[in-house]
Amino acid sequence: MKKILILSLFLSFFGCGTEKPVDVEKLSYYNLQEPGVKSGGIKMIPVHGGKYKVWTKRVGNSPRIKVLLLHGGPAATHEYFESFDSYFPQEGIEYYYYDQLGSYYSDQPTDTSLWNLPRFVEEVEEVRQALGLDSTNFYLLGNSWGGILAMEYALKYQQHLKALVIANMMASAPEYGRYADEVLAKQMDPKVLEEVREIEARKDFSNPRYMELLLPNFYEQHLCRFPSAQWPDPVNRAFKHLNATVYTLMQGPSEFGISGKLEKWDISKRLPEITVPTLTIGATHDTMDPKHMEWMSTQVKTEGFCCAPTEAT
Known about the structure:
10 helices; disordered N terminus; alpha/beta; 8 strands; 8-stranded mixed beta sheet
């Protein structure tokens, strides 16, 4: 599955340095030293001038590797990242689950003016400050929409980063849309594609037939490559808890291309401005063009890290 690929490559990224491996026992990994009422690492952080709160959860204790996870969507949840519990602790990595504003475990205001990229960037900065992360230990991992957010954060606040990981996200939404139209769409059964396009032309996205077509013919082929009946519980919960209002406003009605507020987003020419160590991750069956993500790794000014396109399972 795609998340497993992300994890294995992410861990290899940390192994590329010259620092000695973390000694988990000496690290007192699970000694979280929580003051006051014990909350299992959960912290509600005020954002947007203290008007709202977002949910975070800390796991582990490492002085030099603290990873903040930016989930996709927009307005999905941290839940599909939960497989990290099977990998990060044994590597001595401290990590933070985080539901962005509008997502299930955080406040979900109805003010549509909040759903814009600059405000989300400032939210990440507020979260960073509240968690006490800095350039000596702060690794930012963004997946899908979280990759957009991570890149935009790095362009404004990379002085606070130690490294950046961009997983399954291109640097250009128009290129993402083009790849969906010119490559992924052509992999579908023509009759299925025709019916999908007819529904889209009518903007009849609430029609259950739309997802009946996309689930086996697109989502099971590119998002989680199992029959949906076998999808892991964290993935099912993330889909169940998706805030469809925010998602549709910014992304569009589905993962099959992009048509919301982010439709024209493109920072491909600004990638050389990112000077922190950066890893880009893609795979053959991704919804994003793996060649584009490989190209991205050549555009950052520091040594780029990129996996060769491989099959996501």
